[in-house]
Each structure stands twice: as C-alpha cells, then as structure tokens.
Amino acid sequence: MQIQPGALTLQQLRQVRQGVDAIELPLASWEVIRSASDTVNRIAQDPAPAYGINTGFGRLANTQIAPSELELLQRNLVLSHAVGVGEPLTDMVVRMVLLLKIASLAQGFSGITVELMELLIAFLENDILPVIPSQGSVGASGDLAPLAHLAATLIGVGEVRIEGKTVPALEGLRRLHREPVVLKPKEGLALLNGTQVSTALAIEGLFAIDQVARSAIVTGALSVDAAAGSVVPFDPRIQAVRGHPGQQAVARAYLSLLNGSGITQWHQDCEKVQDPYSLRCQPQVMGSVLEVLGWCGDRLLVEANGVSDNPLVFTENNEVLSGGNFHAEPVAMVCDFLAIAASEIGGLAERRIALLIDATLSGLPPFLVKNGGVNSGFMIAHVTAASLASENKSLAHPASVDSIPTSANQEDHVSMATFAARRLAPLARNVATIIAIELLAAVQGIELRAPVSTSAILSDVISCLREVVPHYDVDHYMAPDIQAALGLVEGGVIGGFCPCEFLTEQE
C-alpha cells in the first residue's frame, strides 16, 4: 500500500483493517523525518528548556532533565503511561491505529528517528499487533494510555497478537529479527500524543453504521410493501420543495427498490389516506442520516490526515511549539453525531416492526403468523428490537458534553472522545440486530400477501434471506433466525441492494 501522508482515503482505511503486505512512503517523507529528528537532537543538547524533549511532562514541564537522562525520560514516560484497562481493541482497529500513527509521524512534525518509523511499519506489514486496552483515555493530551501500550511493545514490554495468538512483545520483535528500540529524545512523547486510537475507533464505527444505514433503506422498503404502504411520500416533487439533497437521494432509493411492485399496484386505490410516519417519513429521517454520515466521514478523514502530536517540530527555524492539537474534541463531537444517527436508524426500524405485527395497522395476521394464539409469532422478537432501541437512546447520549479535569488540573478540559468512539460498536451492533429483526418481519409480511408479489429487486432480497432462514410457519426456536439475518446485515449482503451511497469513497 502506498501511503501519502496527509492524504489517506477511506478506501485505504477499509483495506488496512484486513491487513497489508507492504507499506510504502514517499522519499520526501523519509527526508522530512530525518530533518525533524536532527532538529530535535540539536534542541536536546541546548540548555534552554524545550517541553517534552529536555523537561518533564504535564505539571512537571518546568523540571529540567539532564542530558544523560533523556533516553530514560522517554522510556519512563511510556511505562508510567501504560495504565490502560478493559478488553483489548480488535485487530482491525489496531491496524488502523498503526496506520494513522505512521501517517501522522511521517509528516515530519514529531521528530522521531527513521529507525522508529521503520519499526512501526514492520509491525503493520507483518501483522504484529500491539495489545491495546480499550479503556483509560479521556481524549486529551492524546490517547495517552492506549498509545503507551502500543509504544511499550516497541521497547519490548507488553504483549502483541500474532496470527490470533497473544504473545510477549519480545517475541514479536524476535519475529522481525530486531532488538527493542531505545527511544531517543521526544520519541516516547511523539508515540503517546495523538488521537489515533479515538479516530480509529470512530472510523470503525462509521463503517459499521454506514453498513446498517444501507441495510435499513432496504428493510424499510420491504416494510412499505409488507404494510401495503404508499409510494407517494417518495415522489421527487415532495422532496424537491424542501431541498435537502440527502432526503432526495433516499427517496429515489425507495422508489427504485419498490419499482414494479405488484403490491403497490394492488392497493393504490385503497381507503388509507396516509401511512404512519415510520413509513412515510423515511426520506426525511434516513436522508438526515445520509448527510450526517457524509459529514462525519469528511471530518474523520481530516483528523486521520492531521498531526495531533505536541509539541510540534518546525524544522525551518529549529522551533518546537507547544499547542493543543492532541485535544480530540473534533472526534468526540463527530462520534456524538454518529451515535445519534445510528440510534435514529434503529428507532425508526423498531417502529416499523411494531407496525407490521399490529394487525389493525398492517392488515396482516396478528404477529405475522397464522393460527395466532397457539403461535406467538414475532411478538417477542419485537420486544427484543424495542429493548435494543431503548438501550441505544442511552448510548446516544452525547459524550463530548462531559469533562473531568486530570493531571493535577493542568489538563482541565477533556473531550471523552475515546469513550464517544468506543460506544459506537455496541450501538451499531444493536441497530444491526433491529434491522435483522425487521428483515425477518418484513419478508414474512410480504409472503403473507401472496399471491401478490413485491418488486424484482426486493424479491432478490427475500431469496437471500430464505437461503438461510425458512418462512415462519409455526413457533420454533427463533434466536438462530435472528443470528442468520444479522449475518446478512453485518456482512453487507442486504446493504448491497441499497441504490444510494452514504459514504463517498475517495480513490
């Protein structure tokens, strides 16, 4: 994979999650790395204090460090900050963390050595993945604790994952025929400062929510036909007078999915005047989701391509400037928007399931099963969807509005970005499960309208489901049905039928 620091794409980030065989940096990147490293070495020899190079950290920034202890300073920084707790980050997220850290350091504002960059690249190329606990960062001064666990493996401390097995970090270095690195001035700080963990978690969440959003468009169209809903609310003239591009794109998607449906033709002269909002307002809700995901993807790419180290090295005049690029507020706010969007996807889908099982609204057999009473059908499957939708409301509470002072009040406002990003995965899983239940319910409802049939494309969706889950004839052990449908949602099979793009991939 060729990496242009400052110009990563969503496509590259998707790709690296599965692993890469080689990372290639431009020649210019190696030149600026050397230049910045030389600048740091010169500053380290100067008696004038330079934060993080020959001083302590945080409230200890006024403590001068002797030249003979500068390497020990960096090692101690890494070891003292490796205090993460909780379940380890997934391998896919750790690969993204490594790529983001490489791309940031390669821009030449951090002062690391060529040797350290080569080791980081070797870890990623050989899929030697630091074990990084998921909890312990407040998203200010960077993701200090989790990134310290990454840095520790480079000096031979901690653990790494190789081919799915957790082994000591020294074993990973032996695989590379390398000795533990001795950190030079500022290198420990450069590794620890940065928003790479929160950004990687946010991007992983973005991809997952994109997948469920695509699937929700498809299951939403299925529910329209299952409930004998109208396609009039998707008329382009309605969307045009409001003007939101996302709403217009989503309405076109519904019309495309429902085009040629026999059910639509069969009931177009029925007595119903208007459908419930969960059917009728899908363009307005899902169009908003489309625009939010697009905006969030753009913002996260900016963050992925930025430099969030501190202090920053400017080689043209041998300056080291302290600032606040490590503060992850941009990531935290993006994650809050993503969480709200995801919760709304699930909330709307849960309402459609409730509509389908209610015979007075859908005109279908109660709970979508014949011989009701003996059979409970989808009664409690809806309860599961409702419980997840309710749980998501708590998960969608903004994290960025919280702050807790740390480091003896030196770091007196924090972003909580890492938590904001970390909760996106369970939130996306909850939504995917709701969508899986809707898929089962909507397909069941359409089949109960036989011999009238849906559109050709939605018929293909039904065929995909019926390859793994049979029609619900009588009550049976239903949990495996939901798991099989969930596999189709999370695996991208259902979303693959969606005719509109939520994220625009950059080539």
From TrEMBL:
Pathway the protein contributes to: Amino-acid degradation; L-histidine degradation into L-glutamate; N-formimidoyl-L-glutamate from L-histidine: step 1/3
Keyword Lyase: yes
GO MF annotations, alphabetized: histidine ammonia-lyase activity
Places the protein is found: Cytoplasm
E.C. designation(s): 4.3.1.3
Protein name, as recorded: Histidine ammonia-lyase
SUPFAM superfamilies: L-aspartase-like (SSF48557)
Swiss-Prot/TrEMBL keywords: Histidine metabolism, Lyase
Catalytic reaction annotation: L-histidine = trans-urocanate + NH4(+)
GO biological process: L-histidine catabolic process to glutamate and formamide; L-histidine catabolic process to glutamate and formate
Record-linked InterPro entries: Aromatic_Lyase, Fumarase/histidase_N, HutH, L-Aspartase-like, Phe/His_NH3-lyase_AS
Record's GO cellular component terms: cytoplasm
Assigned protein family: Belongs to the PAL/histidase family.
